[in-house]
Design brief:
This protein is low in regular secondary structure. Helix content is 0%, strand content 0%.
Length: 76
């Protein structure tokens, strides 16, 4: 079955906050959308990452972070 769609789309303003790798942005009609996902080893790693050992004690971050900076508020 052949279907012909004629569209006239006017967009005055559009805001897109974020688009991730698996997102798609479409305006209008598409006959067929084929999803495609490719996974590349861009770091040249020879194999999978090693398994994580014992989890850290609760409250301890996985990555050590610097202490927060406390800024004093000026009083007028």
């Amino acid at each position: 079955m052949n279907l012909t769609v004629h569209q006239c789309i006017t967009i005055q303003q559009i805001r897109i906050d974020s688009i991730t790798n698996s997102s798609h942005f479409q305006i209008g009609t598409a006959g067929v959308i084929k999803s495609l996902s490719n996974l590349y080893n861009t770091g040249g790693f020879p194999g999978p990452a090693p398994q994580l050992g014992q989890p850290p004690p609760s409250g301890e971050p996985l990555v050590p972070l610097p202490s927060p900076v406390v800024r004093s508020q000026k009083t007028a």
